[in-house]
Amino acid sequence: MTTLEKLRPVGPLERYSTARHHLGFYNNVALTARHLVPYDDESSLKDRIYGACATVINDYPMLSAVPVDEGSREPYFARLPKITLDRTVSFYSRKIHLTNDDDEDAELDSLLETQHNTSFKTDPGSEMSTAWRLVVILDSEDRSAFDVAFIFHHALGDGMSGLIFHRAFSEALVSFNGTPPTEVISPSREISPALESALYITISPLYLLKEVFWSSIGWQERGLWVANPTGTTPKSRYRSMRFSKDTTARLLSICRENETTVSALLQVQIARTLFSILPSTYGKLLCNGAATARRWMDVNAVDDNTIGCYVAAYSETYIRNALQTDDFPWHIARQSRENILKLIDTKGKDNPIGLLRFIPDVNKMLLSKIGKPRTNSFSISNVGLFSPKESAEPAATTSNAGPRVGKMLFSQSGNHFGTPFEACVVTGGDGCLTIGFAWADAAFNEELLLQLMHGVKHGLEDLVLP
């Protein structure tokens, strides 16, 4: 096997993902986008996609990096000398034609679920593959567009990195002209820095002592729903739903009227729906949220066009009695927004991600959680609205000559060591909000998730009825 160029150590936040990947308990994250680029046949489309991949790989050195020695205490990133596109890109033909009015896409959900149960590991002695892959999804009845699933190792990038990839990929698709390569020589430039190298996260002694104390006693709040304990047979599940452009616009408008945000609204609606499903013995829910840490970083090191993993975390507790009201509790949604704003004001101080640097062996720490109760009820991650560089308008309204991206879907593996399920939220270039639910199969029965999806969808749509 070729000796790879060693780049830099894996950072503490990245190490959390390399450990989970090594243990087989969390494989990857994905952002899927519909690219509105007409094509004549699969052969010509393959040429265009390979050409676009070559451009994006050259522009983003992180795509040539792979984590090595994930099972050790000191994993590191190395550079692949080249990327063979036939190994990295695959094509899938839809069996069921989908219309633009469909709220659900069971075939795509199933494909993504399979991808999230497939790691990036290679057999010993084999050449290492990339820590990302593309699946191009074609519809034989519609050659005006195609879907591209960008699946990547979470140590390689965060949800926003998926948006960055598709923006660059869309532009490269339109500008492609020439003979496409089947192999791409990796760029020799430096890869993106680790979060902790670009941002010092201050951890106060009091906060550290408090977290160590609660972790050591394993105390759990009475009445808190956390689903089943972590299991030993990891299997990820995934389902998604989509809201129309009109409903999405109305949700945004009603949030502004009530001085809150879509993320805060979704947190409250999910908690409200869960309480309506769960037995009354459960009176509390703990929500974990993910937010970008890029806003606190030096733009010369990390900006909104950097592929890398740069997230911070926050949490919020919801009480049954406060949410089970006849009218929607907008005051709770405003409180949730204020909680997110408080996170922004901290600039990362005493954030849970800062504690990762104090864990000498993440693999050992994660293994110690098997069979233990979970600590949270659900998570939410909203990567926001996709828009091309040139305009903040939804891409579906731009000129046919420019990059155009429509529907998008955010997804990931179930978090077998963490929350029972995660709501993955994105608004595509078509102006439609989509919510993907990723969960660990052992955490709870699928029927609960289906009830949750139904309740969340109808609850949100009822809020914006004319």
Automatic annotation (TrEMBL):
Keywords: Transferase. The keyword Acyltransferase does not apply. The keyword Transferase applies. Pfam families: AATase. InterPro entries: Alcohol_O-acetyltransferase, Atf2/Sli1-like, CAT-like_dom_sf. GO terms for molecular function: N-acetyltransferase activity. This is Alcohol acetyltransferase. The lineage of its organism: Eukaryota, Fungi, Dikarya, Ascomycota, Pezizomycotina.
